[in-house]
Amino acid sequence: MKKILFALVAIFTLGVSNVSADNDKLVSKSELPAKTQQFLDQYFANVKITYAKLERDLFDRSYEVVLADGTKLEFTSQGEWKDVDCRYEEVPAAIVPQPIREFVASTHPGEKILKIEKDRGYYEVKLSNRYELTFNKDYKIVDIDN
Fold this sequence. Notes:
9-stranded antiparallel sheet; 3 helices; alpha+beta
């Protein structure tokens, strides 16, 4: 009985992983959520989209956009940004909440914010000096990695 149960679990697991792996689909800019399109037009209007992709997992959908300058962005299914990785350039200041900008300016003067990620009330910021800062929902620093 245990062998049969194990086999069924193994088959189910393989089936689910195969289903979720094949659910990525390239999309055009016009197929992105309206909020995503507005975000791109506002902050990255002069940069060409290399590709945009809809990622469908078992319980979630998200969008990934890669720009010609190497910037990588991730958005929720509703079009809200969740990750902006500019790699070599500074993240547009208007994207970064003001308390985070002020903290970085006062504690790391001259450093650029190259990446910002928000997830469940936390913000993670990567600086040009390779420091990674984590802020809580109230924009208070909770971790510094160097």
